[in-house]
Amino acid sequence: MKKHLIVIIITLIGIPFIGNAQTKSKWPGVEYAYATGYLYNLEGRLAGNHAIIKRDTTLDETVVGKGVVLNEKQIKTVLDIVNGKNSKALQDGLSSCFIPHHGIVFYDEKDQPVAYITICFYCEGIRIHPTSYYSTRESAKVSPRQEKMVKHNLEQLTHIIKDLGHPVLNSPYEYQRLRHKYRSNE
User: Fold this and answer.
1) Range list of H helices, 107-171
2) Nearest to 63 by CA among 51, 71, 48, 76
3) What is each CA distance from 124 to 2, 23, 95, in whole angstroms?
4) 79: closest CA among 32, 122, 148?
């Protein structure tokens, strides 16, 4: 009887540690305090160089206006998407381009960026940092089921971005026109 009780106690004590180990392995894999959504790269010049955070940990100079802080539900949705079954397909994207105009930056308690996601809605893909997965585009063969899920994930991200007050437009040219509008208001 004592042996069974000891085994049960050890098992119960170990469960929280197992849960924490799994949590730490999920993206972003670092502690964060909050996340902020941004509109950037309106002229589309960052194709291939999509980072919203520069190496010196400042926002890219193409960021427009102030960012908007995501609520807990929005953060959970973003993390569920990034850590979901179709994350690699979403990172590969459904087209061969990637010219992001939206970013979500995760900050620590000292307001330093620790992770980010960039999103290209018309290229139908995301990039994440930090990452251990790098798309080769050769691996980007997506099944019809995966394509459906990726589109659903992008739809969820669209709702979040729009809820933050940022537009989600249909072409690079619409973002360029939007940039001209921001310039005239500066």
Assistant:
1) 144-163
2) 51
3) 58, 27, 7
4) 32
- pTM for this entry: 0.82
Token code pair at residue 122: 């018309």
Alpha helices in 50-94 (DSSP H): 72-82, 87-92
Helices (H), the chain: 2-25, 72-82, 87-92, 144-163, 172-185
**123-167: pLDDT as tens digits:** 899 999 998 665 555 555 788 999 999 999 999 999 999 999 999
Instruction: List the structure tokens of 30.
Output: 């670092």
Per-residue confidence (pLDDT) for residue 34, from 0 to 100:
98
Residue with tokens 């194709």: 47
Q: 106 and 115 in contact (C-beta within 8 Å)?
A: yes
